[in-house]
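Q: Protein A?
A:
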Amino acid sequence: MLSNELKKWTKTISMALSRTMTYKLDFFLTLTLPPLVFVLVSYAIWAQIFDRHHLQSVGGFTRDEMLRYQCWTFIATLLARSHRSWNLSEDIRFGRITAFLLYPFSVWSAYTAEFIAFQVVQLFIVALTLSVMIGSGLVPAVSIDTLLAGVCVCLAVGFLWFTFEFVFGSIAFWIDESWILRLVFFFLTTTLSGGFIPIELFPQWLQVALQYTPFPLLTSIPVHIFMGTQRDTLLLILTQVIVWISVMALCAQCVWHRGLRQYTAAGM
């Protein structure tokens, strides 16, 4: 049984890799262009803020530290924001999950296998992107230990983000057009996770409140690990990620099973 289960996973991951790499240029541009444009805009804006007002620091960040923060945000985003389960809502809406329900492999497992395949490709893209950034001087070279710690946390956070998306994708059982909710959630989490501006620039009361949420784990904490300014231990951070993954995975399963009760498989 273990051998058969392993074959299911490896075959599904292999098929997902083949689909992902079918249109390589389209895949690469879709993956990198939006966050790249964003980080370039953020980079230019913060550079102008420091230069025009002759500021020494903002929120404890010097000019170089703030610009490096924006670059590391790009790296963390590539690893931790896969968006591989966003098409779940379309599969539900058009009745495509019927085929998954007939397979000897659960929908959750199938999407997870596709997510793993996507993360494998992501690692190669991040390695290339980081090499260019270090070679061009945008970010300084970091130690192997720091790099591995950051990548490890980002990969774990990527699965946490996957569970978030699975929950919002399952909303399609009740709402035909759930993309607006996903879009609002994306901008909300990006803002509260420090994706637009560092959390250190938020009001003190909001910084304290965010410590009890998973949002800092999505961007701020991985970025600070890469920069070598994270005060919490790696074990504590991974424990927090695992706890939130468990909570969100349970929510995803509950929403999924409740949705299946009223699934008609009619499609559109």
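Q: Protein B?
A:
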Amino acid sequence: MSANLSAAILFALGCGSGAIAQSFEQTPALSLDHAAIQYFERPLTDPVARLQRRLETGETKLEFQAGRRGYLESVLKQLDVNVDSQLLVFSKTSFQGVLVSPAKPRAIYFNDRVAVGVVQDGDVLELSSLDPQQGVAFYTLDVRPTAQPRFERRDICLQCHQNISTLGVPGLITRSVFTSPSGMPAEHSGAIVTDHRTPLADRWGGWYVGGTSGAHRGNTIVPDRASLEASTRLTPQASDVVALLTLEHQTRMTNLISRIGWDTRIAIAEKQFDQFESRLDSEIDEIVAYMLFVDEAPMEKPIRVVSSFTTTFPERGPRVKKSRSLRDVDLTTRLFRYPLSYMIYSEPFDSMPARARERLYRKLYDVLTGKDTNPKFARLSPEDRRNIREILIDTKPELPGYWRQ
């Protein structure tokens, strides 16, 4: 291993007994080539990779529809992505951005594991797919009909999808940016990477937003940031606000799971886990706080919905006998009725190294039982904590035994 790589790993791990814990955004991007990672070399089992193998063996096939639909409908069906998850973004912020504008927005469809991007008159479908070990992998599918359609892995996507915004691992990003009438980010636009902590007033610049209440940046074009008074409001289109809220939460949650997994694997491979433990505790604190929505931006007004997403999304996860689910939405003061991330059911969560996952379960248990009295968890009511514990005990068989005592 090179000296530069060793230095980067030691910096990321906070080497030394006197090291100060740093946030993910303060640590360098992790090496894709490290022996514990081998991002491009190791076989993948993400949803798109699995679909590609089914295509190669003839187990399934993609149906092509003439016109703009092409392979889209068949791809969504094969990847179990609902059409009502549709989001529309009109800022030129993808590698096919030259074709994107307010008149021709890019459509995004997603579930917990995969997202599919469609650009009108584009050459390819764009896909991001979450692997249990390797994090997010990126693919394209040629839109032209062929006897053997093939998903091609694209490393060019990492130019934007591995940086401090993705916590240094290949990951997902949602941005809010002031957008000109052409779809270009306005001069000095001050793009914001958004998640559930971002105030709603700062979200969704460059996106169509349907059904929301309250101030936000969506459905708006401006000449530049200095000319907000000259902004133009666009007519909302079929881009549901609850789907946007869900995707924003999911992007950072996905990146947190990947980063902790990669950090732990590297520390174990480098035989530096003892030095890494304090850093891991800090990372666990951060992911548990995010999972429990302790810094979620409040909703000033109840959210209005315009699609069936609020019905179909809760149907996609486990539900307890009392008809409670972590996917149940609230939409009056917060996104979810029971504030714990539904991503706890994901395969990548369960595939985190045991040393990290065990500490995460212990931290979460201590918070939900009141043993951890850190005031940052004060917004969780006793009823919230009890409901979350009961839901997990009934729906998460992998929980450590002490949860059920």
